[in-house]
Amino acid sequence: MDDLKAKYLDLIGKADTESNLEDLRVAALGKKGEISLQMRELGKMTPEERQTAGPALNALKDEINSALVAKKAGLADAALDERLRSEWLDVTLPSRDRKAGSIHPITQVTEEVTAIFADMGFSVAEGPQIESDWYNFDALNIPGHHPARAEMDTFYTHRAEGDNRPPHVLRTHTSPVQIRSLEANGAPIRIICPGRVYRADYDQTHTPMFHQVEGLAIDKDISMANLKWVLEEFVKAFFEVDDVELRFRASHFPFTEPSAEVDIRCSWEGGTLKVGEGDDWLEILGSGMVHPKVLEAAGVDPSIYQGFAFGVGIDRIAMLKYGIPDLRAFFDSDLRWLRHYGFRSLDVPTLHGGLSK
Ligand code: DAH
Hints:
- The chain has two domains: 2-86; 104-344, 2-Layer Sandwich (BirA Bifunctional Protein, domain 2), CATH 3.30.930.
- It is 41% helix and 20% strand.
- It contains twelve helices and twelve strands.
- Strand 8 (256-267) and strand 9 form a beta hairpin.
- The termini are far apart.
- The site of 3,4-dihydroxyphenylalanine has 11 residues, from strand 10 and strand 11.
């Protein structure tokens, strides 16, 4: 018994993991452990022998048990000490210098445009980017055979085999929001619809995804003169100049009649754009009086209501205003570019507080 005791106390003292300890417990006190086997021998002893061997074995068992428990606690303490030593953190250190995020020029310009039109009583409407061909084309007076469908380099979605319905499209312009908003709210209405649009095109001034803002004003007495005034106010406010000269050039869009493309007077002295002076003209948007067929498609009676619509490329006017030469860089997520062309996140554009400063 003394040998057993010496052996296990020694082994327990040397154990350095919990699983070592468990192995020792099994070897000594498990069902077939050395001490357990000795306990079984008690039955074969004479009553006298048993009287001394019994209590001695029980004492040995208790002693080994206590040694195991004490060592286990010791190992846990040591593990905690080790963690406390290695996993410390100095909370008094200064925080890491975080580079402030900035506002992307597209977001900035969308906010600027929204602020300007909000001031003229327009609210913001939105529509889905995956659109039915009815909203994207037919309702806007662009029937199936119309060349505008091909010109727009449309992305079509895939229909399952045997599904003969026309495919959905990634909207090629924000004009379908005109139809959705008129259907939902009827006339009179005054909205702008900013958002993403898609066309299969890629070069310095075209990317497969870009941004437009659509404008729509419908009432009983809205004329081309209102369109002209609204656009002049917009261009002056947006380019932050006191005076601009707009040129309305006769054009054609299926959804407006008459239609006009709008140019602004500008100069390109030294490669930088100056709006409001010079001998050049810069095309900035398409517009016109909403076609009666479009109003009809949207459930509005064209014998009572009329109005204007326009569509502006947000990326395009952002490039012009902020002198950004390549559209593709807008979508490259190049941090150096974003730091250069980005805007401070807390400077919300407002007409009274300044749009871009
Ligand atoms: N939807 C046209 C386009 O993406 C832009 C446009 C032109 C919108 C004239 C209009 C408009 O509302 O009247 O090319």
